[in-house]
């Protein structure tokens, strides 16, 4: 695969945000170039490379080498893998470790890994010394197409996920799609949920392309994969450029998140990947939209079919309706009583609809594995 | 005094920062108007009012009442007074308390008190839900003329003060100078250190005005006090507008801070107010500048005389030269080996000079009470 991939040209997507604009570089086996790019885009003289064991460490070691080859000092810092590392306590440990190692205003923070390390590192970069330059080197599919772009950083607190955080745009996002070959299949599927989400809310052509060749994307054939990554980054970049702080448009990216977040909270963030939760939440939302006649009949079946081919679960974990209702109410996007629910109007188009929690999870709603099309399940 | 003050007109200074511009309202017994202003400038529907006991609480109660009168929900939150509250742990407690109380994106965070509550509240506002609108109601002189304007927020960590933080501009700064009548004299003096600092680095006319009537300012005569507050806010606003992120010009505001921070660190932030430390640091810096022939002879005497009239100490606490050298080196403004030392060139003008720690604290430097003009002392 790498032999074929080596001939695949790299691509660039630009996130337009005035003087905070930045490029997303997408390539195949391009990791040795990241050091020069970091130097060029940040002007830093030293780098703190944050990563998680075990897999990302291998990529991080190469990132550190590339940074040193570019003439910067570089040091690697590891945090335990998993959502639990996205905590104030872990951020506190990193502040200490980075300061002890001499972090100063000339230091760039570089995240190598998936969404957890990206969100946590970005938060540390946003808050250490009132903001240090930040670079994302995502090595999971979810991070490549979603979390590494857009400047959302954060940690979790007792009351919920990402409730503490900051908007802090990276100076550069550097994607080596070849790193996905080391990603466990379940993580790969979870990332595909965000790819499908982008297509569903924004781009019917991308959706159709996925319907014709999702298996080749999942198999990481670079000729198919790289254009899909590029298109996803374009969509994310366009939405973020037009609404950096999620005042409106950017909320569309929360498609599937209302019930997805609720499911994650009810499962106490255990046993469910974020992408899996979003997949289930999208299926639920699409069915709900059909029932409310917000989108044509058959829309949810088309979405479900693609999600299933990505190896993702369709049905939310089984909890009483009332538990879901409470979890939905607790969601941070609440203003007054109504929720900005992202409704699918047809494949390729979504809009937010202000709904009461009771409209999103109506009396008699069937939620949970086995309720209908009992395939997925949360594992 | 309030009888006379009631006829003193309020003043407005605008901090120009594009779409993040905001007004500073300066008045006398104007606290009942803050609620309407908060509503107008934030559009929030509820407010979390953060304060410290015992004195600020009295003002905070009136702020809460004014906010409720404007039709918003409002709730008061108290943290212990003192620099130790500027911690990640205290921020964590506030995240919990605010979220439990229903904080959402429609919530404005309002700080009522001095620099500690302002810095801490601003940091919580910057990071809770990725940034909530923020309003400063400073009730200490230091906060009115310095820390409430400019968007610097932060907490202390083991390695030093304000090493974790964010730039987060308030939407409004509301100053009721009458609240200074409840400020202990020592705190009033500490605030005067920042007033004198602004005059020394930026405005020879203000310096001369202070030389002619500093006692009337200290006595809080509104006719004299309000114009001085206004001019100080103008200076701070001008510097911040031209250099929000402290890339250059804003560094001038750190006059006296290199040795001041060192003294605070050596005293482990006990027994020394920030303004006192800055006062001592300014005297040291001015003498050092004279010795290096960076400013005319007599400059430091003129500065010392004014500082002394403000009831402030002149001499840094006694620690070995080597201890100061180590503390200066650890200062966060270090890049490579040199420090952006703020040098006084004459009364009313300063500039940054890159100096080695050894040049700032040279061999044979006499530091500490009794070294020379043994008046002040750190108490």
Structural features:
homodimer, 379 residues, alpha/beta, Rossmann fold, Dehydroquinate synthase-like, alpha domain, 2 domains, seven-stranded mixed β-sheet, two-stranded antiparallel sheet, 44% helix, globular, disordered C terminus
Written account of the structure:
2 copies of one chain form a homodimer. Helix content of chain A is 44%, strand content 18%. By secondary structure, chain A is an alpha/beta fold. Chain A folds into 2 domains: 2-183, Rossmann fold, CATH 3.40.50; 184-379, Dehydroquinate synthase-like, alpha domain. In chain A, strands 1-2-9-6-5-3-4 form a 7-stranded mixed β-sheet, sandwiched between helices. The two termini of chain A are 31 Å apart. At the A-B interface, helix 4, strand 7 and strand 8 of A face helix 4, strand 7 and strand 8 of B.
List the helices and strands and how they pair.
The structure is a homodimer of 379-residue chains.
Chain A: H1 2-5, E1 11-15, E2 22-27, H2 34-42, E3 46-51, H3 55-69, E4 73-78, H4 88-100, E5 107-113, H5 115-127, E6 134-138, H6 141-147, E7 152-157, E8 160-167, E9 172-176, H7 185-202, H8 204-218, H9 222-242, H10 257-266, H11 274-291, H12 299-309, H13 321-329, E10 339-346, E11 349-355, H14 357-360
Parallel strand pairs in A: 2-9, 3-4, 3-5, 5-6, 6-9
Antiparallel strand pairs in A: 1-2, 7-8, 10-11
